[in-house]
Specification:
The chain is an alpha/beta fold and about 325 residues long. The chain has 11 helices and 12 strands. The longest helix is centred in the middle third of the chain and has 18 residues.
Length: about 325
């Protein structure tokens, strides 16, 4: 069974581990320790059926990778011990590895992560910040595909097959969008949404992209694209840098619908004003920077010719 075949399923082992912790679960809903419902993407089953149906009707003869590439899931985490058990229960059982980047946690995050699955690797980061954590995690990842997902429960791991299928179908870089059909957010505030739209319009205008979402950190890409992304930032601006550099590198980019949930436990380290200014600075610096030959390098580094993206993903390169 491919990753897409597992989309939306909850394995028997996951169900047992949740029940042992007093958490009830069905195919759609988890309940956190406070009794509040943690609802997965309400349209995930419908999206899955459309993807499978379209792929069956229009098979892509140019699929350039195996149906089951090795998938590394990179999870930056700082004091997320309470959230990791629920987050891990949404991640498909057959991922190759989960790389947890521990940001000097004091609540036992690393120990909890290691206890949850046998394929968990915990690495440290060299400087504070989400950007640095992701860079360290990407360098440590050994899979063919790298998926980045937050540790706070806001991102649903059962959506990972959507990203993997888009990559196997021909994309080089896949980003989640909360503003596509079948997507949404129960967490984003009006201020953050307004800022995201303004920054997205700026990027689309300055770089000629057609992104529907910009400042969101659910993404996946082939590991061979890391030199083209050439990430070199420390903070939350890392998602914007990735999206811009994926475009300027000439990568084949796709968006997939995703659902953002509320954080389950703890408080976010995101500051709308501070991090918004950092994102703005990245946009301006990337616009003024030379292309650095990334497009030529991307074309020569790609392991095969790009093919149209299959399924629900929308190609926006």
């Amino acid at each position: 069974m491919t990753f897409l075949g597992k989309l939306g399923e909850v394995s028997g082992s996951n169900r047992t581990s949740l029940l042992e912790r007093g958490v009830t679960v069905d195919d759609r809903t988890l309940v956190n320790d406070d009794g509040a419902p943690y609802v997965r993407n309400p349209q995930i089953d419908e999206i899955r059926e459309r993807v499978l149906s379209r792929r069956d009707r229009q098979p892509n003869p140019r699929r350039r990778a195996a149906d089951n590439p090795r998938v590394s899931v990179v999870v930056p985490a700082r004091n997320e011990a309470k959230n990791l058990p629920i987050v891990f229960d949404t991640i498909p059982e057959d991922v190759f590895e989960i790389v947890v980047v521990d940001g000097d946690s004091t609540d036992g995050t690393a120990e909890v992560a290691r206890s949850l699955r046998d394929n968990v690797r915990v690495v440290g980061q060299t400087r504070p910040g989400k950007g640095n954590a992701l860079i360290c995690g990407f360098e440590a990842a050994r899979g063919d595909i790298i998926v980045m997902i937050d540790a706070d429960g806001s991102m649903d791991g059962t959506e990972i097959p959507l990203y993997v299928d888009a990559l196997v179908g021909g994309a080089d870089f896949v980003k989640g969008s909360r503003y596509m059909d079948g997507a949404g957010s129960s967490d984003i505030t009006l201020i953050r949404s307004t800022g995201n739209h303004a920054l997205r319009l700026m990027v689309n205008t300055l770089f000629g992209t057609r992104y529907t979402d910009l400042c969101y950190g659910y993404a996946a890409f082939w590991r061979w694209t890391l030199p083209q992304l050439a990430l070199d930032c420390d903070g939350f601006e890392v998602e914007t840098m990735m999206n811009i550099r994926a475009h300027t590198a000439g990568l084949n980019i796709a968006e997939v619908p995703t659902w953002e949930h509320d954080r389950i436990h703890g408080e976010s380290n995101l500051n709308a004003t501070r991090d918004g200014l950092r994102i703005l600075k990245v946009i301006i610096s990337e616009r003024l920077a030379p292309k650095r030959g990334r497009k030529r390098f991307a074309a020569s580094a790609a392991p095969g010719a790009n093919a149209p993206v299959a399924g629900e993903a929308a190609s926006i390169a």
